[in-house]
Amino acid sequence: MKITNIISSITLLILISGCASKSVEENKTLINKNNNILNTSPKVQNIKIKKQIEIKEVKKLSSNEEEFLNILKNDKYASLCAQKNAYLNILNLENSDDMSEKIEELFYNYTKNLSNSCINQSAFKKKLKQRKYIDANQDYEVYNVDIDKEKLLNKFSLNKQSVDSILETYTPKHPQFFALIKELKNTSLSEKKLFKLRLNIERLKLLKYANNYNFIQLNIPTYNFAFYESGKKTKSFGTVVGAVDAQTPILSSKLSYFIVNPTWNIPDSIVKSSIIPKALKDKNYLRKKNIVIRKNYKFDSKKIKFNDVKWKKYLKKNAKYIPYKFTQLPSNRNGMGRMKFIFPNDYTVYMHDTIGTWRFKSNRQKIRFVSHGCIRLEHPVSLMKYLSTNYTKYSYKKIRGIYDSQRTSTVRLNKKLAIHLTYQTIQVNNGKLSFYNDIYGYDKIQKLNFTF
What we know:
It is a single chain. The protein is α+β, with helices and mostly antiparallel strands. The chain has four domains: about 55 residues, no CATH class; about 100 residues, no CATH class; about 170 residues, L,D-transpeptidase catalytic domain-like, CATH 2.40.440.10; about 60 residues, no CATH class. The chain is about 40% helix and about 15% strand. The chain contains 18 helices and 14 strands. It has an eight-stranded mixed barrel. The chain has a three-stranded antiparallel sheet with strand order 5-7-6. The protein has a two-stranded antiparallel sheet with strand order 13-14. A hairpin with a 2-residue loop joins strand 2 and strand 3. The longest helix has 21 residues. The chain is elongated and about 85 Å long. The two termini are about 60 Å apart. The N terminus is likely disordered.
C-alpha cells in the first residue's frame, strides 16, 4: 500500500473517531500534521507514522488513578507500609495500561492497611499466648475489616466517587489519627520515638468505629476518661485502671446501660485473696462492709452465716472453686460506689464509681494502676447526668431521685454509644507530642510489618 493511502486512511480514522472525543480544531491540526508527513521522504514518513500511531494509542490515567497517586506522594493515610516499593515501581512504568493494573492492586492493599493496620498481628497474637501474658490477663482485641475486593475496585474504576470519599469508610474517626500522622514529619524525633509514633497510629486503625464520631475513650497509659462528640473532646477526667498483673483489656464495645446504687457480686478471685482472709481476722468485717453470703447471686436465695462454713480449705492454692457467692449490698461503702456503667465484653469489665476517690489526686503508677481490670471513674455522677440527658428517655431529675433513694435501678441507653479501651502511649496535646509510659509493655511486643 502506498504511503499516501496509509496517510489518507489514518486521516479518515482520526476524523471518524474524533467525532466522539476531539474538537474540529484538534482534527484539523492532525490533518495538517499528516500533510506535512507527505512532504518528507518515505523513510521519514514511516518513522513519523509509527510515532503518531503510538501517541494515539496512549491511554491517560483516570481521575481516580491520578488522585490516588497524589495521595501516595505524602502517604496521606499512613498506609503504604510494606507497599512502598510497589508504589515506586509504578512511577517507573511507561505503559499506562500496566500502570492502571498496578495502581488498582496497590489501592486494594492500601485500603487493607488503612482498615486493618500495619501491625504484624500474627506475631502479636502468638506472643500473647505465652504464659507470662496469660497470667497477667493481657488481652488486646483487634477489629479487622473484611474488604470485598471486587466491589472496592469497581467503585475506584467507575470514577464517580473520589478516592478520599471511598477511603473515608475505612479511615479511623479518632481526631488523633491525622494529628499523629502530621507528626511523622517531625525531624527531631529519634528512631525509637518515630517507631513508637507509627505504632500508635496503627493502633487507632484497629478500633471498631462504625463510622461514628461520638464515643468514649478510656486510655490505659494516661489513665483518663474522655468523651468525644462530633470528633471533639467535650469531657475528660481521671480513672484508676488494672494493675500490671490484672490488666484492663484493650477492646471496643458499646455502652448499653448503667446501674444506679448497684450491688457488687464479688469475684471468687477477690473473695479468696481478700474477703475471706479479712473476715477470718475480723468477725465484724462482713457486717461493716454490708456483704452477704449466698449459694448464688440471686437475691431470694437463703443467706449463709460466715461461721457456719470452714473457709480455710478454700484458701489453699489447689482450691479452684468456692461454692459460695459474696455480694456487697448498695451503700456508701460499696466497692462499686453508687454507679456502674456496663458495656458488653468477654472479660466482665465495666466502669464504676469508687470509695477511694483520694487516688485521683495522684499520678503515681502504684496509685492509679491497682484495679482488678475494671475502670474506676473520678466523676461518675457527671457521666450519669450527661447520659441521662442525652442517651436515655428519662430526665436527670428522675434518675437523681433514684440515686438519692439508694434503690437499685437499671437505666438503659436508647442510643448507641461506642466505647474504646485503648493503649495510646503517644498523643498530641495542644499541638505538641506527649509520651507516656509503656506500663503493660505493648510497645515492646507489638511490631510493624514493615521497616522505615
